[in-house]
Design a protein that fits this description.
The chain is of the alpha/beta class. 27% of the residues lie in helices and 34% in strands. It is built from five helices and twelve strands. A seven-stranded mixed β-sheet has the order 4-3-2-5-6-12-11, with helices on both faces. A five-stranded mixed β-sheet has the order 1-10-9-8-7, covered by helices on one side. Strand 8 and strand 9 form a beta hairpin. Helix 1 runs parallel beside helix 2. The model has no long low-confidence stretch (mean pLDDT 94).
């Protein structure tokens, strides 16, 4: 069976596998997001979740911070279907979460914001978009408010041979997610995600999707943050927390 390659919305068919891929890693990432929100003290301003995906980060925010409005920004229609489903299944998130169907450069911003989550999104943004984003965030962010940014521990494009990153039995099927990478440019990596569904010894589905990811490492993040009056603290090899500079 020859894999089908999807290039328009890379999540058009793969959205159903997103949680299969994310679940093994989410618990640890969630801890850092929750810790940053709690360290900020009481948050009484809206929170923006950029690249909300299937809603894992959105629900973590809703379960950590009471009452405030949450803006979940997600450009992929397929991912938004999962996001809205997760919001509706939560006992009160549907009353607080507004879903914005757009990209980072088209966010409808609240006048002031209490925190920002950017899990698995910064590499999709080119430098001009990132600088505009940091400027929009900084102008709305009070002292001590966190911007939680996930990035890949990859600051230079490299060749990465294909390997399996997740596998999960769902009924009679086993869903498997593989990943391979190669340089797309001097500053970007092309990741090829391969999704397979096994039924016994037979592969019943096999397709790939490509994602071009800017190799934003901690040093780039710190440099860009500093340019916009934000400090950057590395809290894990893949997560940084930006806060307004006090000086």
């Amino acid at each position: 069976m020859s894999p089908e390659v999807l290039t328009d919305d890379p999540y058009a068919l793969s959205a159903e596998f997103y949680d299969v891929m994310a679940a093994p890693h989410w618990a640890t990432k969630r801890e850092f997001l929750v810790a940053a929100l709690r360290a900020a003290g009481p948050i009484d301003l809206p929170i923006v979740d950029i690249g909300a995906g299937s809603g894992l980060s959105t629900m973590a925010i809703a379960e950590t911070v009471d009452d405030v409005a949450i803006h979940a920004v997600e450009p992929s229609p397929a991912m938004r279907a999962a996001l809205v489903s997760r919001i509706l299944s939560h006992h009160n998130a549907f009353e607080r979460v507004t879903v914005q169907a757009g990209r980072a450069e088209n966010i409808v911003w609240p006048d002031r914001i209490g925190a920002v989550s950017m899990m698995g999104v910064v590499g999709y943004l080119d430098p001009d978009v990132r600088h505009e984003l940091w400027a929009n965030i900084r102008s709305r962010l009070p002292a001590g408010a966190p911007v939680v940014v996930e990035y890949m521990p990859l600051s230079t494009p490299v060749t990465v041979p294909e390997f399996t990153i997740a596998q999960k039995r769902i009924g009679q099927h086993i869903a498997e997610v593989r990943i391979a990478g190669e340089p797309a440019s001097d500053t970007a990596e092309r990741w090829t995600m391969r999704y397979l569904v096994h039924e016994g010894q037979r592969v019943v589905r096999d397709f790939t999707a490509e994602h071009v990811w800017e190799t934003v490492g901690i040093e780039t993040l710190r440099e860009e943050a500093s340019h916009h009056g934000l400090n950057c603290e590395e809290v894990s090899p893949i997560i940084g927390v930006l806060r307004p500079s006090t000086s």
